Amino acid sequence: MTSSKGESDQELSASGRIDEIRRSAGSLFLAKGYASTTMNDIASSVGILPGSLYHHFVSKEAVAIEMLDSLNDDLRLLSIDLRRLGYLALPPEARLRELCRRVVQLSLQHAAAVRLRAFDPPTVASDRFRDAVALQPVGLQRLWRAAANDLRDRYPHSPVNPYLLTHTLQRLTATSSTSLPGPVDPDVSSRIICDTLLYGIAPECPDDATLDASDPIRAAKSAVSEWHSAGDDDALKRQILDGAKHEFARRGYDATTIRDVVEASGVRMGSIYRRVSSMEAIFDELAENYATHMHRSVTAVLDAQSDSAAATLDALAYVIVQAKRHFPDETKMMSLGWYLAQDGQPTFALRYREQSAKRMARLVEILTQGITQGTLASTCDPATLAPYLRNILWINFPDQGRVSVKQEHRFLRTHLLRGIVSQ
């Protein structure tokens, strides 16, 4: 009996230690990013020697895979649980709302795993890691698609896009723990997401012809037409920058080395250092070019004269949809560092955050004005709504060949502005 009890105590102790390791590693992944976290960091956070940590996990990747597996298991169980609770008998809108609420809950419970899934794993990751990141539980996918398709069938005269709606709802809810500021309430967050994409924020939105002729959309199209590649006539430097931005987009700034840039650009290391002084200088030049184009375009839209908040939001949507196609690597490389700790980040990464905060403040002003005038719906206060709108506008679709710029912009007009559910 004593031996049996001793073994049980040992098992409980080991289990508690593993849970502690997972929690500590998760906090570090959220704060520093996966690439910048080491096994020594995890051991120090737990208060054990690195050798003791390796007794429980053979690598940092093994810890991450366990986190991802736990999230994926809960997502699979969610689809089973919903069926047991009579979910399928609900109307399609109620089903979408319940899916949103439950997925937001899981996102909060598995915040570190969500952070790992939100971006591609490191290029040196194993197939096992990549599979865990990419896994989409089939049962849950079917529930999303069925609810969106049934919503379209219920409103046959409304321009519902089930594919884009499903993907947008999935991304918004699954990443809510890392993409929304402050404490997230699943009930409140899921309500805002569904109200925004199903009922729209501008129910009296002008028709397409009026929006296409608005001053903000004309300003947006003029600004976008001026986008061009950064740099001067130095073709070799352009080659270096093109290779570097691809690696920053794949790995993030912290995990990218000069050797990665050498391999990606095909330019020798000596030639690289004759044209740029450091990795930070490379990042700053790329980020500054991207930020300059975005700032000019967004400012042109915001400064355009318009009595319609909907027209201004529509033009902002146009700029962002175009930016995601024109600057795919720059968009990804900036987003990779968005939620990480600020120590050691490139100079322009910090300035970009400051610029983004100013643009967010302008967005809040537009929403406040529209709500005050009665042209925008007040589902919540403008400061709360603004981050949700930003996230909706910046959603990336996995198959851009299937979704054109025109289709994506139309989706934002019909779902985000006008709404697709009859009141």
Please tell me about this protein's structure.
This protein is mainly α and about 425 residues long. It folds into three domains: about 60 residues, Orthogonal Bundle (Arc Repressor Mutant, subunit A); about 140 residues, Tetracycline Repressor, domain 2; about 210 residues, Tetracycline Repressor, domain 2. Helices cover about 70% and strands about 0% of the residues. The protein is built from 22 helices and no strands. Helix 1 packs across helix 2 and helix 4 crosses helix 6. The N terminus is likely disordered.
Q: Please report the distance between the alpha carbons of the first and last residues.
A: 68 Å
CATH class of the largest domain: Mainly Alpha
Radius of gyration: 24 Å
Order of helices and strands: HHHHHHHHHHHHHHHHHHHHHH
CATH homolog superfamily of the largest domain: Tetracycline Repressor, domain 2
Q: Please mark out the parts with pLDDT under 50 across 5 or more consecutive residues, or reply none.
A: 1-9
